[in-house]
Amino acid sequence: MMKSDLRLCYSKLRNEIPSGKISDLSLLIANKTLELPIWEFEFYHIFLPIPGKKEIETEFLLSILQGRDKHVVLPKMEGDTLIHFLLTDNTKIQPNKWNVPEPVDGIGIQPSKIDVVFMPLLAYDKKGNRVGYGKGYYDRFLQQCRPDVIKVGLSLFEAEQQIEDVFEDDIPLDYCITPLKTYSFPVS
C-alpha cells in the first residue's frame, strides 16, 4: 500500500479501538520493551501521546525509564523541526497549537547525545519502514542523530507486508513493539 492509504486505514483502525483498551495494550507494549537489548544506554527519547488520537500511552514506558534512572528526552516542535529537552522534576508540559503535549523549555539535549528513540507511527512494514503523520519531523530528527541510534517503533498493530512508496531519505526502524510481537529489522 501507499503511505497515504496506510495513514487513512490505520487512523480508522486506531479510532475503532475502545479508549479503555488503549491503556491495556500500551502496558503490554511497555513491558515488551524490557526484552530488547537497549537498557545499557543513558539517553532515551520518547514522545508524549496526542489526546484524542488514540496513540500509545507512553506513561508506562516513561515509568520504566525513570525507574531505571535513565535520562528521558522529550521533543518540542519548532517550525518544521524538533528540538529536545531533558525531562526533569521542573519540566512543564503544555499542548502546542496542534494539541501535541511538549515541554515548554528546559535543558536542551542535542540529537547526537540520544541513544534510543521510541517513535510514534501509524503503520510500518516487515522491512522496518514506518509511516507517520506525513510531516517529516522524525525523518529530519533522525538525520541529526548518530548513525548507531536505536530506533524503536511502538504500534498497536502488526506489520504490513510492504510500503510501496518508501523514499531514499526514509530511515527504517531497528525494532517495532506491538502488544503481541517484537519485530527486529536487519540492517540494510
User: Treating each run of at least 4 consecutive H or I residues as one helix, how many helices?
Assistant: 4
- Helical content band: 10-25%
- Name the beta content range: 15-25%
Q: What Rg, in angstroms, do the CA atoms define?
A: 15 Å
Helix-strand pattern: HHEHEEEEEEEHEEE
| Count of extended strands | 11
Structural category is alpha/beta
Spatial order of the strands forming the largest sheet: 3-2-1-6-9-10-11
Protein name: 5-formyltetrahydrofolate cyclo-ligase
Family: Belongs to the 5-formyltetrahydrofolate cyclo-ligase family.
GO molecular function: 5-formyltetrahydrofolate cyclo-ligase activity
Catalytic activity: (6S)-5-formyl-5,6,7,8-tetrahydrofolate + ATP = (6R)-5,10-methenyltetrahydrofolate + ADP + phosphate
Helices and strands, with pairings:
Elements: H1 3-15, H2 19-33, E1 43-45, H3 59-67, E2 71-78, E3 81-86, E4 93-95, E5 101-103, E6 116-119, E7 123-124, E8 130-131, H4 137-144, E9 150-154, E10 175-177, E11 182-184
Parallel strand pairs: 1-2, 1-6, 6-9, 9-10
Antiparallel strand pairs: 2-3, 4-5, 7-8, 10-11
What do these coordinates show?
By secondary structure, this protein is of the alpha/beta class. Helix content is 24%, strand content 22%. The longest helix is centred in the N-terminal third of the chain and has 15 residues, at 19-33. The relative contact order is 0.19.
